[in-house]
Amino acid sequence: MSQMARLLALQGAACLVVLAGFILTGWPVQPIPFALLVGISAAIAAPWLHQGRWWRLIHLLFPLAVAVADTLAWPAWYWGIGLIALLLLYGGVVKSRVPLFLSNARTLALLSEHIPPHARFLDLGAGTGTVLAWLARHRPDVQSCGVETAWLPWLIGRLRLRSRPQASWLRRDLFSQPLAGYDVVYAYLSPVAMPALWDKINRELPPGALFVSNSFAVPDQPPLQRLEVGDWKGSELLLWRR
């Protein structure tokens, strides 16, 4: 069952449970309290069906967003624009199950310490080009490449990096990007993507090259190092050497 199907199934089950509670207690069903209870119930149950803490937040906010949207008397074309924007920003999430994560400056400073001079660096799932833009400013010796598939983040990254000749910016699925010739490969993806990415790393990454994952481990593959970032998210960099 896909992650989206699990989300809808869990939301539906939570709706039935909460509705039964309202009926048994005789409380009147009001949209916002009902949606809040559905969101809380689904968020509590989310770890049994999903990997990744963000699914709890999605389950909590989804019914509230629906309830609030139902109270707004906006023209239909508002919702059309919103849908198009979401598809441009997150259109690849349903297929790849990799949401948009942005690396912060503290993480990038720590990452930079493990990038050798004049290295060839690859960012898989590069979002809006944050990593490459930071490296272009602070590590101009590094030849970097970023790969992103979602249209809106890719366009933002292209604009950010248009005057950075040492940065190459590609719109491409990360699993179709060759890894040969790179000294460091960086990824900030999701737990779901890590097993397939690890298989790709083993097939394509040159011996001696470094693979760095932001926060997400590879099942049954202990990293060579774990580096705590020290930010509010509890981020860490996990390093493997080929």
TrEMBL record:
Cite a single GO MF annotation.
protein-lysine N-methyltransferase activity
Query: What InterPro entries does this protein's entry cite?
Result: FAM173A/B (IPR026170), SAM-dependent_MTases_sf (IPR029063)
List membrane-spanning regions.
Answer: 76-94
Give the GO biological process terms: methylation
Which UniProt keywords are listed?
Membrane, Methyltransferase, S-adenosyl-L-methionine, Transferase, Transmembrane, Transmembrane helix
Q: What is this protein called?
A: Class I SAM-dependent methyltransferase
